[in-house]
Amino acid sequence: MLAVKAVSYLLANNAPLLAKVPAESIVAGVIPLGVMPAVGVTHISTTEHTSIAVDDAQLLATSRIQVTAHAKSYADRAEILDLVRKALPVSRGTVNGVAVECITPEGVGPDIEDHDAGIYQQSRDFLVRFQQP
To answer: Please, which of 10, 43, 60, 78 could form a disulfide with 49 given CB 3.0 to 4.6 Å?
Structure first.
């Protein structure tokens, strides 16, 4: 869950995103019912990589992370996902104690809407490659 830790930290400390979504509404895991606008960060899968160039004590891993935006309108949802994309640029470095090799965008999920309830959601996936202790 190190990738979730890194991504959640980057999102919760991004000023443009925080102007649209309160920090307490950016959560690791499932977004509580009725909280909008909100962003949820969840783990999809992890692949571990072995390499003779890597110290035995540290493996490289790549996790697929899904970031889901919940909003009260289609336009707000689109704006939140754009802010999420900008908050997670292709980058590397230590993030919240996690040695991140790179974060790269991996695709956008389908529109999920409940017009009667006024809920609009959509997700973006990211691949996070990091050193796993």
So the answer is: 60
